[in-house]
Amino acid sequence: MLSSLNIRVKRGILFASLILINLFLITLPLTNSLGYEFVLVNSIILFFVGGITVCSKLKTESQRNFFSYFSSEYKTVLAVVLIPLIVGSFSSLFNSRCPIKDGLAFYIAIALPSYALGIIIGFLSSLVSKKYNRLTFVSVAAFLLLTLLLELYFYPQVYFYNPVFGFFPGTIYDEDVAVNMRLILFQLFNLILYGLGLLLLRKKIYLKTKKVVIVFGLLLLIALSFVLKPLLGFATSESRLHNELQTKISTDHFEIFLGDSVKNSDYEFIGILHEYYYEQVTQKLQVSETQKISSYIFNDKHQKRELFGAGNADVSKPWMNKIFLNYTNYRQTLKHEITHTVAAKFGVTPFKVAGNLNVAMIEGLAMWIENDFDNYPVQYAAKLAYNNGYKVQLENLFDSGKFFTSYSSLAYIYSGAFLEFLSERYGAKKVIQLYSDLDFENVIGENLNSLSKQFDVQLADSTFKNRSHQAQLYFGGQTIFKKFCPRMASNDMKEAKDDYVKKDFAIAAEKYLSIYEYSSSANSLIGYSSSLIKQKKYKTSCSVLEKEIKNFRSSQSLYNLELQLADSYMLSGDSLNAQKYYSLVEEQKPHQNYLNRVKLTKLIWKTNGSSGVKSFLIENETGRANRLFNTYYSSKAIFIIPYLPGLDSAKVDFLITDLKKNFKATDDETRVVALEVAQYLLLKKNYSGAKHFAVMAIDYSAADWKKFSAVENLRLVNWFVNFAGETKLKVEHFK
Description:
Elements: H1 2-25, H2 36-60, H3 66-72, H4 74-96, H5 101-128, H6 133-154, E1 160-162, E2 166-168, H7 181-206, H8 211-232, H9 238-244, E3 247-250, E4 254-258, H10 267-284, E5 293-298, H11 301-307, E6 315-317, E7 322-326, H12 330-342, H13 359-370, H14 378-386, H15 394-398, H16 408-426, H17 428-436, H18 440-443, H19 448-459, H20 468-475, H21 486-501, H22 505-519, H23 522-534, H24 538-548, H25 558-572, H26 575-588, H27 592-618, H28 621-635, H29 649-662, H30 668-683, H31 687-700, H32 704-723, E8 730-733
Parallel strand pairs: 4-5, 5-7
Antiparallel strand pairs: 1-2, 3-4, 3-8, 6-7
Helix pairs in contact: 1-4, 2-4, 2-5, 2-6, 5-6, 5-7, 5-8, 7-8, 10-12, 12-13, 13-16, 14-16, 16-17, 21-22, 22-23, 23-24, 23-25, 24-25, 25-26, 25-27, 26-27, 30-31, 30-32, 31-32
């Protein structure tokens, strides 16, 4: 009687604890609905609940088999499984508006196998020692979690498949996480491996095998699961990476591994660009030499996500001397990632990064050295943010570990600009010293609070207050913690885009609308509008956008929505409202690209009438490119140039020849064109032509902020002109 009462009390405590933990989870960002993060946390909880409850049961009872345990304890098992599911589902339905379909898939594919594996390992632990089974279980669980650190440290990857929690994609910035066949196969692999191990070891018990054999068997299971993972595609070893990226470029300081989509004509540019940034970084950080750095450039985010993790974020592993990039944007991130690796020379901790793994110091140093935010110096970006209300407390970034709770661009910019401020005032050596010892009073002689106030004084600049729309474009985004159902929306957006590409516009529109209803994301709204336009439902697109655009007045997506609305009005025949929104974007001046788009539309309108604009908006890429070329040929309007590199080579050659004869940089618009043409010619190995336009951009640029990008571009071009012939490149192909 007393024993039965005691069991009921323990069950009650267990159920109450699960309820309270999950009620707490739904009050937090990311775990406030039945989504990936909610399931991830619960999978860890259920793994330990499953193992500990089995161990407690087997301490006082004779050995049972796995299935008899479920048959006798099915009520407890059912309650443990249902409590998180019910709490998460109710929160999704009534608190966050997130559909539960993806969350349910995550729960079935991750949480349930984790619970089952916890029970199996609880049985295995009891075979090792009935008396100390709970200690054995916790030790095994700790070791399984430790394999995560081993993979992070020794393997070229940041994603993890783990029996305790299923799967982790790499970084919180990568929203694209979904249940796929590989995850399902991994869970089946673990259930089969440990299940067979339990079956075999239980048979050995009946044969009165010594405990040492059972212990060895359990350790063998864990070792097998770790060793087999790279072979089965659940982890990435260096050999697997080299098998996938089969082209290697060797330079003095790099071994660069490339995917098969990288063009042969790009090999020289890629190799020389690596060496150029290496020289810049080592000089600024006062490092004489490093070991050769391995640089991996994946075909795209999909290949990178599969082999490395973090498909949308380029990453460095300083302790491994490796950087991992996407071919589509490596030029924008290469210098930043090289900085992380070179900084390993004075990094601390086993990971060779900043002391205490301080993210603000790690990323701030890279931003300080990179010193490039959309062709502006980092100080410009920080002043733009600060003077338009986008402020971040440095104490939060450096002291409180709240780096990831700020919008990522702001956190990176403020950290980098602050270190730039310190280097100008106290010297680069002091900043480098801080990287190893983040004690401001000891290194600088002042505390962080005092330095932060001085930094604020430097940032205050009234001339930046008339650039509010540029600031909104750059900094008006949301962190993942403030988005609605980000993982689910990302997956659903992929499906909707697939339908759009297949020209199933009605289905795509339905999906985009569904996403918008629960996520309120601008991309889903634009997708819905674009799908309506493809169905020639122009007035519906106008009414939807006109109704919803008010929700994005402070968003960085406002300007895309205004252009989308202007285009919709134009296609519907309402030229008055189209003119209103085109002019509004022109007045706001968020970025030169938006001004060019409006000018282009107005030029076509002027020369070909509203019918010409309508044709331009709905024609295919080839037709649009030809129209743009003809428009440039007849008007010589410089703002068309950035839209033309996609033309065939003959037309591009004609364009470059014409520009050399007739083009002069006379204002911001033409300066940007000169820069872009110089960069295009540099990529095409036309170094003399690149220098011609790079010098032209310098000649016009008067303001310091605007001259910055022109000076940096000319420095890059000059380096190619002077050293391209001397840089040793060796290209190898592996099969």
